[in-house]
Structure formats: structure tokens, C-alpha cells
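Batch 3, record 17
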Amino acid sequence: MNDLINIDLKTLKNSLGDSLEKFEWWALRSYYEKTQFRMARNGLNAQNGSETSQGVMVEVFHKGQIGYGATNDLSQLGLSRAVEMAKSMAETQELLPLTNFDLSVRPKGEGSYQSHFQVPLSELTPALVMDRLIKVTKNLKKDDAVIEASAWAMITDTAIQYLSANGSDWAQRFSMVTRDMAVTAKKGDVIQKRSLGMQGRQWGAESLDEATLLEHSERLLKEVHELLGAKECPSEEMDLILTPDQLYLQVHESIGHPLELDRILGDERNYAGWSFVGAEDFGKLRYGPEILNVTFDPGVDGELASYNFDDNGVPAQKEYLIEKGILKRGIGGIESQKRSSLEGVSCARSTSWNRAPIDRMGNINIEAGDSSFDEMIKSTENGILMQTNRSWSIDDYRNKFQFGCEYAHLIKDGEIKEVVKNPNYRSSTVQFWNSLSHVGNQETFEVWGSPYCGKGEPNQIIRVGHAIPTCKFQNIEVFGGA
Amino acid sequence: MATVSSVNKSWKDLFFDIKEFLFSNLAEGESLNLNLSSEETHFLRFNQSKVRQATAVEQGRLSFELKWNKRVVHGEVELSLNREQNRDHLKRTLESLQEEIRELPEDPFYSEMTNEGESFAEMEGVLPSCDEFVGQIKKYCQGLDLAGYFTSGLTCRGNANSLGQNHWFQSSSFFFDYSLYSAKEKAVKGSYAGSHFNSSDLEASLQESAQSLKVMDQEQVELKPGKYRCYLAPAAVGEIAGILGWHALSGGAYKRGECPLGDLYEKKATFSPLVTWRENFTLGLNPRFNSWGESSAEILPLVEEGQMKDLLICRDTANEYGLTSNQANRGESPRSLEMLTGDLELDDILKEIGTGLFISNLHYLNWSDKNKGRLTGMTRFGCLWVEEGKIVGPIKDLRFDETLYHIFGAGLERVTSFSHTIMETDTYHQRGLGGFKLPGLLVNDFTFTL
Ligand SMILES: [Zn+2]
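Prediction for the assembled complex:
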């Protein structure tokens, strides 16, 4: 797809003359993004598409309020309309404001960020990507039991720039690939599916290395056949070991979301929900045992939400959210920190140029512990090892959850035994995290992430990262299919 | 009262101007299908009955489907109200798609573009200014704790292809999606949506919600997991209808082995004769044309008295599996689903529950065993415990895990004589269109697990 010229924000700003100077404060945030989506199915070319998005969000501080106006018309006329829209939104808000911020919520930031990668995304030509995806699905489709094989890649290049009245001037450039592959097989009435699990990261063309993709496809094909012949997952209380391709979503739903300060402040009550965590819990609540350490870490190489600035322009740095099991800090940007008088992190983020920043997860990670994978298995008398998420649901206070996985092995007397199908588990958040008995070491640690976390009114999706070791939980309610 | 801004007049002109320009740049043997979606929207976000954030957005997106020599490529770019800027980058977009298509393998299930005719629908609206709306919230929400958002403005959808097909749909509308909270953190959900705003309707909606909130102040009831008799109000049924769009009615998903209603389709299972589902485009919530410009039947029966009549089948699925298309959208999700009403009167609901649950809303549904049609989710907002036809109090929220075959089959006892229109409030990337028209359901032995 065409390489649209990246927005030159300073030139756009200059085109507005002095029309911004009449405000106490202003900022311009430009957002440019180019995404390719390619998919193969059953050894054949299935879908080729590309999208670009570009626009500018204007923020003005006017009558004591911040108003937002967004446009994709980058002419002088279009931007002037957006300035007027931002002004009128500030005036509307001033009629009935929830908060009265001062300008300390928009600190000055200068610098840049660039994703690390080995091979630039520009190496991934449409024909090359499609050729690899076709090979993968041919490999997945090589026997008659397979009714559907698919593989896709979403390749994204994003550039954000920010200029403000108080001298902020920064730019960030992200190189991202999300990939997945899946195989569905049928024997008699049994249908089972096995997938890689959607995996998003900041990386380059190395993300679609042919040999690695083919290796995964071999493993998934073998595993879907095991599932076709497997017994139903038993329904009983047992020890549960979760690998990072499931545990990342468990962390996302039952640690990330409830710690968001805007949920605690009630902004999300009508949509995403409230939180069982209250302001009084910070510094006190025992979220898990001593071995549980959870961080907000925007500096992990390759993780999907690594960055240097959030969209309020606040520099980002690593912080402990849960330290030795105790809740320390919330996931809230500078506005929520002011409103709640709680400590937060630099995480006010927007899905694109057309939405205002709100509190979002960035990279929310569990720090590696010291248990080896073998130790976790050996210490298990009666348990189950579950892999790859397939179903998730949690209540609006983030308490009662239920997850399903694609693939599991029973563990008996310290040994991995047979494969079972349709594995699920359910529990409540604090009880679950307090049943954590082992945190895996660096060898079990993997970087996962999703481009699809939804929240906010108006709605916004955001990219989140979760770098996680394998962990073990004791006495969890496990059950099988219908 | 103000009608929407005058800038909007140009979206339609702009689209028909641009399509001519792009079609004139096609090479021999190429065909091009275009879809526009644009909007001018104001979003007011509320917490504690006050404005948390206010954003105005002007945006348009143009998507391309280019065909050449048994090949297909898709592209999507910004479309602004600035004609000169558009011409420039749209031409470059077309050129890069023309280049890319020559690099790609053939599409295995290729079909030639067709001309599916013309349609034009424009719904005028009367929308309040943001200042006016905020003034009314200030007036009607004294002493109430309200969270939610007001979304208002113009939404446009256009389709045209190089064979002469033309469709246009635009509507000026608003929705106010909100909830009210009691001091004990109990909540009720409310909504007011339409195209002709009237402050007394807003007031009535808020008053009704405030009245319902009073019931929530009674002592909370904590129930053990188990099977309960339940009334699911239309909004709760709406959450279930929402998840049907995730493969349950998709012909393609059935063929790929991931259709939750596969057993219903194969007649290995049936629903209750009380169940009739159909796509009903006469509701006017959504354009009848899909992204290929094909118009669906005004009424498309899906389930009739418990028997499945049809899955949703789009052009691509029809080509791949040799089926007949019923002009579904690419995702094969319902766009204007209606469930027909039954005979349970509003005033008889509590009596008919007897002892059980009144469920006003559900939350965060997901398939827990997809091929068996089993789903899990939570109760949310204003759910009540009822004993011998009398409300005892609000419940502590419960997790359910139950199959569609039970909810709409063996477990279904009664369907209400009334139904509610539930408007789409999705605003990811852009304002969504569409909605559902649904009754309430009385279901026995509904399974709660946590
Ligand atoms: Zn999320």
C-alpha cells in the first residue's frame, strides 16, 4: 500500500498562525498508522488488505477545562475547525465540570521512541508474507481430519507526534506484528481446534520467520489430533499450572483491569465496569503471596506496549503495582492521580487520533520467580497443565471469572499424564491469586500481548503487553465441556 | 434545538464526486467497489452526573475492493471533507493497490463484480446542542449519581462500484446510554435513543430509572450457585443476541466447524416453538445493503417456531462452499435481529417468576463450549430476587454457564407480549449502526455456577 507521507506536525501547527495562542494552553497530537492484514486458509490465498489512518487531535485548555477536537482534514481549514470544536467542547464541559484541573496535568516532555527490531517491516512484501502463510496452512491441512486451517499476520507501523504550548515536542515510532495460526479437526462428532494464540509484539520481519512458523504448525497439528482422541477434562478441585499463553489473559482481566484508577473512580461504571479494589486498599491489600510481583514496565524490549511517553505527554517508567503480594500502585495516568490522590503510572492512552486519552494498561507483567517448570510438575500430586486461551469472562467488579483453554495435560504424582479436552477453570480474583504457590523462572518467561483491549466511552481499543512466567495455583475448581 | 451542522451536506456529494474520479483511473479489466463511512459526532462522557470528557470528531473512511484478473485486494484510507487532499492520496492509494494486485496469487473463490442497483435513504433528525443537553442533565440529575455517555450527530454509509451500483444511507441520531447508582453501589441501567430529541422523554427515562433504583436499596440477597427460574428482560436478551453475532448464525462458521448452533442447523436439536428469529430491515436501524451493495430481503427468517430456516450466508461463503447467498454482511452477523413476541404480559412477570430471579442485564458473555452452544457470563445492573411473586431485594451478582439449547429450548416457558428496540451503542473506531428488537424470556432451571 502507498506510503503516505508522514504528518509533519510542526508545519501543520504553523499553518494555524496564532489561532492557538489565544488559549491558556494547547496541544496537537498527530497519529499516523499503516496496517497490512494478510490471511491464508487451507493452503490458499484468502485475504489481502491494507489500511492507513491519519489525523490530528487538538486539545485546548479554555475556561479551566480541557476540550478535544479531532479531524482527518489536515488543511488549514480542517485544523481550524478542529480548534473551534475543541474550544466549544471545553465551553460545554465548563457548564457542569467533574474536575477542575490545572496545567500540571500536562507536563513538558521531549524526546523520541523507536521499537527495536532485527529486520525492518519493509522487507515483508505482500507476495512474501502470503507465500509463508500459504505454506503454513498447507502444512496444517496435510491430513483429512483437518476441516479448516488458517494463518494470518497483521503488520503495523505507527507514528505519533506531540507538540504543546509549554514546549512538549516528542515523536514515537512503533513497528508491530500480531500473528496467529489455527487448525480445526473433526473425528465423528468431535470437533477440536488448536491455535498458536494471538501473539502481538513490537518486532520486525523476523516475526514471520518461515522455519519458526512451520515448527509451530507441526506441533499444533500433532496436538489437535491428541485432542480428537482425548477424554473430557474432569470436574474437580485440583492444582492448576498455567503457561504464559493463558496466564497473560488472567493477569490482564484480574490484575490489570481492577487496578485501573478510572474504574476505581467510577468513570467506567456504565461500560467496562467498576472495581472490587478501593482507594483504601493501596498499601494494604494482600493480592497474593510474597512471591507475586507485578509491574508496569514500558521498557521491555519487544513487548507490545513499550513506549517513552503516554498520550498526556508524561514520561514512562517502570513501577511495581504489586510488590511481595501487597497492592502498591494503580494503573492511572496523571489526571486520575490528581483526582484520586493515589500513585499511578504513565498510562493515559488513546486508540488513535480521534479519541481522548484514558487510563489504559501498558505492559503489565509478572516478574519471573525461581521455580523451574520441572519443579512445578514434580510438586504436583493431582493437577492439570492448561495452555492457550479459548474463552474468558469476568464480572464488572473483576471478581468472579471463568476461563477456558484449548489444550491440557493431567498431572499425577509429579508426572505429566494424558491430554484432556475442553479444560476450564473458575474462581474469584483475590482468592485465586492467593492460591499461587510457584512463580516460574526466567526460562518459563515469555512476552505476550494483544492489540484488542476494549474500554471507554466512546469506545477505544488499545494494545497491551504481558510478559509472564509459567505459574502454579493450588486447589482450583476445574471442569470440562457441555 | 439545532439540526446538525451544515458541513455534513457535503459527505454525499463528496462520495459521488470521488467515485467518478477513482473509476476514471481504473485500468483495462479492473473493477472497483467503494464503501464510505463517515460521521460528525459529539461525545459527552459523564461521571457523578457531571462531564468528565467532551470530544468532537469529524471523520470519514473509504474502503476499496479492487478486482483484476481473478485477483482481489482490499484497502482502506482516511476520507476528509477536503477535496484536494482526498484526490491526491486516493489516487496514490489506488495506484498502490493496482501495483499490489499484480503481485498476489489468484483468489481461489473469485467472483466477478456485479451491479446490485441503487438505494437512497436519508433520515433527518432533531438533535440538541451539547450545551442544551448538559443543561438538562444539570436540571434532571439533582441528587442522582449518573455515569454514561451521550453520543450525537450525523452518520453516513455509501457504496458504489464501477459497474454503476450506488447506495446511500445517512441518519442524524443520538443515544444516551447511562446507569444510576445508589449509595450501596447498586445500579440500574437506562437509555434514551432516537432521532428526534425531546427533553420530556429524557426526563421520563431518568425518572423511571431513578424509581427502579429505589428497589435496589433493599437488603442484598446472596444466592448459592445452582439452577434458578429466571426472567430475562429484553436488555439481558440483547446481550445474548449480541453474542449470536459471534459465529452462531454464520454459514461460514458452520462449514469451518465453529458454529454454536450447528446442531440446530442439522436438526439434531430444536428450539421451543415459542422462538422465531428474523432479520427485519423494516426497523430502519441499518442500511439493507451490505459492503458489496447487495440488498437483503426486508424480512429474512432465521428460526421459525423453533426450527432453523437459514444461516446468514454472504457472497464469499456462497462461492467457497457452493451455497446460496442471502446477502449477509462479510462477518455473517445479524444486523437487525428481531425475536417475535409471545403472550406474557408485563404485569404478570413477577407472578410468573414465582420464586426466582428477575435479570435486567447480563455482562461479558463468551462461549464456554462453542460447538455445544454453551455460554458463560455475569448478571449486571438491577437484578432482583423474587419470592412468591414479590421482590425481596437485589442480588449479589452471579455467574451463569448455560446452553442456547436450554435458554431457547427445553428451559423456555414464556415470551413477553412486548419487545424493546435496543440500539447499537458501539463506538469502536466509529459509531456503529443497527440494533435488535427483543422480548423478555421466562426460563426455568437456568444454571448459575459461581
Ligand atoms: Zn482488556
